[in-house]
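Most newcomers find our protein records easier to grasp once they have seen one. Sequence and backbone structure share a record, each on its own labelled line. Nothing more is needed to start thinking about how sequence determines fold. As an example, a complete record with its sequence and its structure tokens follows.
=====
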Amino acid sequence: MLFLTLNTFSATGGIEKVCRIASKAFSEICNERNSSLTLYSMHDKADVSTEPYITKKSFKGFGGNKYFFVIKAILNGTGQKCVIISHVNLSLPAYIIKLLSPKTKVIVMAHGIEIWKPLTGIKKKLIAKADLVISVSEFTKKQINEGYLVRKSVVIHNCIDPLLAHFPELDRNSMRSKLGLSPDDFVLLTVSRLKSTESGKNFDKILFAIKALGQQARNLRYVMVGKYDEDEKRRIENVCNGLGIGGQVKITGYVSDTELPDYYGCADLYVMPSKKEGFGITFIEAMYYGLPVIGGLRDGSVDALMNGRLGLLVDPDHQDDIISAIAKIYVNPSSFKPDRKTVINNFGFDVYKKKWERVIGDLAVS
């Protein structure tokens, strides 16, 4: 099996995390079948650390050399039983592999917005020629099936990283003290990149909700975790200052995966009423740590929250819906905590791996 990625081990972000987890699943599946996995990463450097997800011998990083990456991918991919691409931007080598080696099964992973928008050229051709398109949510699958001619499309939800810490290292109040928060504060949390070029996350609506709830919930605090660009950080700070809630909002910047559990552990509610989520892996991470969650009902968040079974779904365009949802959980948070067993049974690594085993096995005999 050949797995082609853009960036896996040297960058942060949801897709990169998905690729790391997928590589571990593919490696285990190959080992169990006396086969082998090779992962080619276009942008990772050759000396990047890949363990404990996969062994170094299974990996080759091309350090941004796109031409060499494409050539090597085609040479190695031709004749492989299965080639999986992590992103539609890798369509060129996958399409050529399929033309040169029709028996090779080509699988495209579809995450969200990158495939919702109309595709043209080689990307559109690959979607039609690929043996299988794996969507991370029913929402993304629907967008693909309505927009393109596809041989076969299957949903495999993202899963919780099996290497994610079981429990936060710092106790709740120690982490709060580190962030300048009080034990009595009611802490809202969002984990997401803050980029001025991306809209649809609805950070502002959360900020307006905090302002609106000021009289009945004076101890509301909001922690925004994730890499940011300066323009977006400045814009959010200006909104906060304009609303008079600057002291209630903390923008942390980048937080490593090893530190992230401590942030989940010190929060009371995870909120991200987005309308641009392909799935929303941070939702299932938050629920894994027992946090009530609020998500939008117009994107892949619906899958992560199991149609409202695990959390509250709101209309991301309606400010009052977001205010009402936060108020409900604020009054009685324990009644909105997700069932951890249900979370693991639906979004655990073992479930994820079995789904991939099934679809790969079905392709092998087709």
